[in-house]
Amino acid sequence: MEDMKDNIILMNFTDIYKEQQFYRETDPVWLELSHLTGCNCYCDEEAAGILRKKMKGLPAEGIHFLDSGNYHYISLFWLEKTDRPFRLVLFDNHTDMQPPAFGGLLSCGGWAAEAMETVPALKEVILVGPDEEAFSQTDAKFREKVRFLSREKLAELSKEEILRFFSEIPGDLPVYLSVDKDVLCPEDASTSWSQGDMKLSELTEYLELLFENYDVPGMDVCGEAEPGTGSLCNDRANQALLELYRRSVFQ
Q: Which of 82, 80, 67 is nearest to 9 (CA)?
């Protein structure tokens, strides 16, 4: 539905968005989740049920701001809403394919692997940003379903070669975009996790290419800092990503 593509959804776990300005001239849907327990880094069954209920009726189409990277597993719940086959393009400094540490609980560190196992419409993952050692430690059954562009390759390859990597993604399926700002260098984002080397200008260039060449029905963004840290760079990054999304879907 074209009229749903401008959906801007803020998922408020930590109140960090109340300190930011990037969405102020829009009319976002605000999901109030700051009192929810059992959901920080790991998501227990009760919290997952509440989250799915809160998200019921909201489409995967649009742009969803998920708060801290501790809540990146929310991407799984958005992907579950997608019926037609698609690819996931994931920008992250981590693989998010780690095996669960506590009784099979869904986690911010393992949600992408969970998605590959439980979302039938997800046909392939394009993973951009983690280092090669971290990817080598993921289960082989997941690596087989992933096109991988490592942190090392991002540093070694020319801009033309990197853009070619994205342009070689087959165009037969739509792509859902997921961005953890920890893929960015510390000058362009402030997060609670270890960060990569990518510049915001590089990230937006890659995203713009994807928007220009593929059907992108939905996108999510996470990687906020702790409240009260004065992360103006995150506000600027969120604004750039929101403007890029809105410009792309209405071009």
A: 67
